[in-house]
Structure formats: structure tokens, C-alpha cells
């Protein structure tokens, strides 16, 4: 995104914040909502551009990334009044790294007495003398297991603890993420309403002035609705900086597998001549025919075949004997793995290993195959649960087996959702219709 784009997008967001603020009831117009520009995965130059356009509050989710940016020489030189908000899950063993950063302003995600205690104990080592660290209590208003935060029923207890027992902390407000994809036309967002109710509850029980308790709710797709319901702190990233790919996922360019099932050889050759190398086939017989086709053997000598269909053990040798077989994406039993392992030395180059992927039925459907997942999922409903499930599977095997997650590819996403899959971490997308056109069913 260019400098002009960032500045223009920032201007548009600020105008929308102002317009939304003016529409609120009079009692809510006591303060202009604060904009936190969420800059995670975004380069330093875009942060500087936003800063030079007047933005001061920036939010980061990951400790390591915040460390790099807060200590970046360019930011230190050009953005001396920047105010960093930490808006991700904070582990106690990383507290000192965050507290030691220049211009740390607010921790929005305090979700336990233990975390509050450690922040309170350590802040004097890093902060200015007699200062207090601003914090928010994070509340999981949606009750989703994959989101951090305390339940609304615990809010009085934790806020009371911070106020009474954490002399080095200042309670700035409450924060929630809420459920993704809520449509404002369905009425007031229940997560935003819940956060407001939490504020009312702590103010009533602890004698606080509600105007002094900020509400951090609302992101790029819902900040205007959040402001309408009383938000005083909105966290906006995509609307300012454009869509992002998580920084840790930028370690590799996702691989495109052109799914050529039912497609004629001439179209495969055309795609190959345009630079495509990886092709996927679902049926053993069809892959046999294409892999051994004289034209493909002559014109596509660097082609790499992926088998992406269900593989029966009695057809393994047919697959392994094919020229340019590259990867079996659908290993789903120990028996299949054992037979592939036993037979590969008969066909593969000496001392080579056959690349395989484990097929996971993330949707639980009886006809579910390799991480295909359920069809027709709408991105506006939030992160695809099948893609999230596959990521969790990778995390689990890496944690239990000591593997490097960057070495474990995720094959998920097809023609209608590969962009969303890449955003969630896919490193191998299988695309057919978008390349070759809609295909007839194989009879």
C-alpha cells in the first residue's frame, strides 16, 4: 500500500469515527473515541506514514513483533510520541520484554489476577518514577473457547483486585474481541452490549465513574456500530493498512497446485508453458494417462504431480511408478503409510523419500476428504473452522513431536476460498475451476 493510500484510508476511518460519534446519544458524546491503528504484520514505513498523518496510538498482537517495531531506529527517530498498545495474549514470562519497550502505553489484555500481579510488581523496574501502567481487563463476551479473556461473571472480582491491590496499575477500561462476522442489521451486537453491561456492573459495585472506564470494542468491520453502542477505543487495522498476511506466515510463498482432473492435456501444457509446475489429480487411472502422455513427457519434463484423491493400497504401485510423481496428499491410515514406505524404494531414486501429507477430516462429515472441509463456508462468518482445525492439528503435532511448524505444509483452500485459506496459513492451495474453468462431473 502506498503512502497516499495509508493517509487516505486513515482520513476515511477518522471521518467515519467522527460521523458515528455525532450520531450517538448526548450522554455518549463526552469523549471522542480513540483510534488504535492495528499495525501487526505491517512494515515500519507504513507505520511512519500513518504517524506523519497524525496517528499516535498503534496496536500490536505479538511480543516479538512489538519489540522489533518499538526499538526500530526509524520509528525511534521519526515517531517519538508514538503510543503502543499491546492487544494480544500476554504470557507472564514475556511481561518484562513488553514493559521495557520505549513508548509502551497500554496493555489491553489483562485476564487474570496472576498477570495483573506480575505487571504490578514489575512496572516500577521499567516505568517512570511514581507512574502507573494503564491496563484494560479483557472479557470473553462471546464465550468462545478460542478467545482469551475472563467471563463477564468474573469482571467485578478482577477489576476490584486491580484497583485495590495493584498500586502500580491504572484501570483504563474493559476490552473485548467478540464474535466475528456479526451483522449490525440484526440489532445491537450482543458482545458490545455485554461489555457495556460489564462496565455498568463494576461502576455500580465499585463506585466508579463510568465516563472514566473506557470500552475497547470494534474493529475494521464493526467499529462504527461499536461507537454507536458506546465504544471509546476502536482497534482498526485492515481499513487503514489493507489486508494482512500474518508475519510468521510470510516465511514461504504458498504453493499453487493446479487441479487438472477431467481437463485435457493441451490445457495442462498451456498452464505449464505459462510457468505452472504443480498439478493435482484425484483419480489413479486419469493420473496414469496424463503422467504417461507423450506430449506431457515431451513438453512438461519438470511437471510435479500431486495425488489428491482417495488412494487404495492395491493401486499404490501404479501411482509410485509414474514419472514425476511428487506428493501424495491423502495419507489417512497407518496401513497406507506402511505400504507407501515399503514400496517407494522399488520406484523412487536411490535414498530418496516420498513426500506425503496426512489427510484430516476436519469437518467430521462422512464423505469428508483431505483438508477439504465443508463446502460453501462464508468468509464473512469469521475464520473457517476447518482451516483453524487443521492449523491446530499442526500445532499439536509440532508441540508433541518437537517439529518445526515452518516445515509442515498446510494444504487447504480451493478455487472459492484459497485467499481466505492463505490468510489463515495455507501453504498449498488446490485450484482448478479458477484456472481451467468449471469442469463436468466425471461419470
Automatic annotation (TrEMBL):
Pfam families listed in its UniProt record: Ala_racemase_N
Keywords: Pyridoxal phosphate
CDD domains: PLPDE_III_YBL036c_euk
Residue stretches making up the Alanine racemase N-terminal domain: 32-243
GO MF annotation, one: pyridoxal phosphate binding
Domain of life per record: Eukaryota
Keyword ATP-binding: no
Electron transport is among the record's keywords: no
Record-listed N6-(pyridoxal phosphate)lysine modification sites: 40, 261
Family annotation (InterPro entries): Ala_racemase_N, PLP-binding_barrel, PyrdxlP_homeostasis
HAMAP family in UniProt: PLP_homeostasis
The family this protein is said to belong to: Belongs to the pyridoxal phosphate-binding protein YggS/PROSC family.
Function text: Pyridoxal 5'-phosphate (PLP)-binding protein, which may be involved in intracellular homeostatic regulation of pyridoxal 5'-phosphate (PLP), the active form of vitamin B6.
Protein name from the UniProt record: Pyridoxal phosphate homeostasis protein
Organism: Asbolus verrucosus (Desert ironclad beetle)
